[in-house]
Amino acid sequence: MSSSASRLRPYDTTPSRVGGPQSVPQGAPPPRGAPERDPQREARSTGMTRKIDELGRMVLPSELRKRFRIHEGDHLAIHVEEERIVLTKVETGCVFCDSVDGLVDHRGKLICKDCLSAIQDI
Fold first, then answer.
1. Alpha-carbon distance 32 to 99, whole Å?
2. At 102, is the secondary structure helix, strand, or coil?
3. Burial category of 111 from C-beta neighbours within 10 Å (exposed 0-12, middle 13-18, buried 19 and up)
4. Where are the beta strands (DSSP E) in the chain?
5. Contact criterion met (CB below 8 Å) for 83 and 93
6. What SS3 class is residue 8?
7. What are phi and psi of 6, to 5 degrees?
8. What is the dihedral of CA 55, 71, 50, 90, to 10 degrees?
9. pLDDT at residue 59 in the model
10. What string of DSSP letters covers 50-87?
């Protein structure tokens, strides 16, 4: 096994960075041909990469699925913003109990009437 392959985690194609990220010394100009830094994009970057398989599929990292409460069977909307592909979880049930009955919009989230009344009682 090569040294780079030994640093790969199962199902992860991102090698670990032993020496940390390569950086340009403070005050030095960026290398020629390097893209300009986009602070907004850097703020959203997770540092994770995934390979697309021969059928066009990729696996969302478990950290992201947990953070955004994405579970097997959930729907994701796909749209394009400028040069980016954006995935958005489609909410189909109450954010608290997943009920699909009596849903109301409360501050941009779907909540069933039972959970809404419980929140209002707090």
1. 55
2. coil
3. buried
4. 75-81, 84-90, 103-106, 109-112
5. no
6. coil
7. -70, -20
8. 80
9. 94
10. ----TTS--PPPHHHHHHTT--TT-EEEEEEETTEEEE
Biggest CA-to-CA distance, the chain? 60
pTM: 0.47
pLDDT of residue 106: 82
pLDDT at position 26: 57
User: What is the residue whose two structure tokens read 């980016």?
Assistant: 84
CA nearest neighbour of 18 among 28, 10, 8, 26: 8
Q: What is the CATH number of domain 52-90?
A: 2.10.260.10
Q: Is 59 exposed, middle or buried (0-12, 13-18, 19+ CB in 10 A)?
A: exposed
Would you kindly state where each structural domain of the chain is located, as residue ranges? 52-90, 92-122
Unique residue bearing structure tokens 């697309």: 52
In the chain (122 residues long), the average pLDDT of successive 10-residue segments reads: 45 44 53 56 68 94 91 91 91 85 86 88 82
Residue count of the chain: 122
The sign of the CA dihedral 111, 113, 117, 120 is: positive
